[in-house]
Amino acid sequence: MNRILIVDDDPTMCLMLQANLARRDFHIVTCHGATQAFEALRGDDFDAVLTDINMPGENGIDLCARMVADRPDVPVIVITAFGSMDTAIGAIRAGAYDFLPKPFEIDALVVALRRAVQHRALRAEVKRLRAAVDEARRYDELVGESEAMRRVFDMIERVKDSGASVLITGESGTGKELVARALHRRSQRRDGPFVAINCSAVPETLLESELFGHARGAFTDAKTARAGLFVRADGGTLFLDEIGELPLGLQPKLLRALQERRVRPVGADSDVPFDARIVTATNRDLESAVEERRFREDLYYRINVIPLTLPPLRTRGNDVLLLAQHFLDRHASLSGKRITGISAPAAARLVSYSWPGNVRELQNCIERAVTLAQYAELAVEDLPERMRESRPAHAVVVSDDPAELLPMEEVERRYVLRVLEAAGGNKTVAARILGFDRTTLYRKLERYGQGEPRA
Predict the structure, then answer these.
(1) How far apart are CA 326 and CA 402, in angstroms?
(2) What CA–CA distances, in Å, run from 77 to 27, 48, 113, 224?
(3) Cβ-Cβ contacts under 8 Å for 455 (sequence gap 6 or more)
(4) Do 11 and 76 sit in the same domain of this protein?
(5) Residue 259, pLDDT score
């Protein structure tokens, strides 16, 4: 029940307001002056204060000014005489949250009080989110307090100083490079270089030279010798993103480099040693790629000494709002806008959305919303249309009508496909959740028309 402090020197007015508001689920405490009000505030907590302007001693405006200085978390609504706009403006300047001109309807007062209570709750949530964001920044840009992210942070702490290879898996946009950077910055190699390459972004003809370097004259444009990324990462960390896209022809050479800790530049006659920690990442199901002979098994086990899986954003609960506040603070600062938080309806849309693009999509969404925002809070209309119109992706329908019940085979089909979707298409993870081996899962997907026949 919301607790309201009413300050008025008229006992009759206090009793009338207390009687009317108590029937609308407010807990009311009354006092007859500013001094008595501050004594009540020191000994108790209130969600809002309702005060008259004209009182002996300190008036309502004085009370507002003291509240802003001593209890800025408690919103104040002032009651002004009819037509006293100058007085109302003075109260707002003194820090009042809202004002009501006399005479007023009880229903209008109830609306104003509920708005003030919601405003206080939102400010408290923004404060909590900012504190949580500050705490989360010890992992650089990785932000989260869900159980799934706590497990990620724990794993980072446990393996940060190991020299073993780490394979980071997760859907696109979950922050795999951020994890790699956090591993590097918290490790004993933090003073060394962090070198990153996206294996899918470099043409196959250039990738070998980029990774291993080349000797002078190795090919037409090789006018000088050039060190590869393995050597340039010496003393630090080499991050190979999208390792699942590495061409088959390069995989044996990468395996040899990892085993021997030496690379041979293209066109060179001798090897060059390197000392770099190797961190790889992929959004692909590498175990299935191994079975389908698209990825070497020996290389898979070499890079997968320490597996680290990032959860999709849709499974991280209130981390969505935590991240949204983090991105809001950043983009509001960059744009010079005074935006303090996210409205309750907009927050509800963010939480209910499925986030197929994960954290990257959320960041883009908040950047857009900050750009379009006209008020101190992000509103629903500031969000992209797909989020404004989104509905829960899955509904459970329970019926006692036999005509609406499904055969077991259809129930299984729907459940298998739902688990596969929740696993981001990762057949290995889906099979583990379902309790199947991957061969069984492949066979079922073929029967459902959802997979390619296996050789």
Answers:
(1) 50
(2) 16, 8, 8, 75
(3) none
(4) yes
(5) 95
Q: Is 122 exposed, middle or buried (0-12, 13-18, 19+ CB in 10 A)?
A: middle
Q: CB burial class (10 A; 0-12, 13-18, 19+) of residue 333? A: exposed
Among 288, 309, 330, the domain boundary falls at: 309
What does the pLDDT look like over 350-385, one tens digit per residue? 988 889 899 999 999 999 999 999 988 899 999 999
What does the pLDDT read at residue 307? 95
Structure tokens at 414: 């729907």
Q: Are residues 165 and 244 in the same domain?
A: yes
Indicate whether 35 belongs to any domain: yes
Residue 437 has pLDDT above 50, yes or no: yes
Q: How far apart are CA 377 and CA 61, in angstroms?
A: 26
103: cis peptide before it, omega within 30°?
A: yes
SS3 category, 241? strand
The domain that holds 247 is classified in CATH as 3.40.50.300
Question: Do 225 and 266 have their domain in common?
Answer: yes
| Three-state secondary structure of 251-307 | HHHHHHHHHHCEECCECCCCCEECCCEEEEEECCCHHHHHHCCCCCHHHHHHHCCEE
Q: Is residue 326 in some structural domain?
A: yes
104 and 212: one domain? no
Q: Please state, as a whole number, how many other Cβ atoms lie within 10 Å of the Cβ of residue 146.
A: 17
Same domain, 303 and 340: no
Higher pLDDT, 86 or 237: 237
Count: domains in the chain: 4
Domain assignment present for 66: yes
pLDDT at 85 over 70: yes
- The tens digit of pLDDT for each residue in 48-73 reads 999 988 888 888 888 888 888 888 88
d(CA 98, CA 49): 11
- Find where tokens 């320490």 sit: 306
- Over the stretch 138-152, which tens digit does the pLDDT of each residue have? 566 788 888 899 999
**303 shares its domain with 331:** no
Task: Tell whether the torsion through CA atoms of 81, 82, 87 and 92 is positive or negative.
Answer: positive
Residue 139 lies in a domain: no
CA 139 to chain centre: 14
Are 248 and 159 contained in the same domain? yes
Beta bridge partners of 30: 6
Here the tokens at position 111 are 């609306």
Q: What is the pTM of this model?
A: 0.63
* End-of-domain residue from the set 67, 97, 132: 132
Cα distance between residue 265 and residue 4, in whole Å: 75
- Residue numbers of the domain that contains 107: 2-132
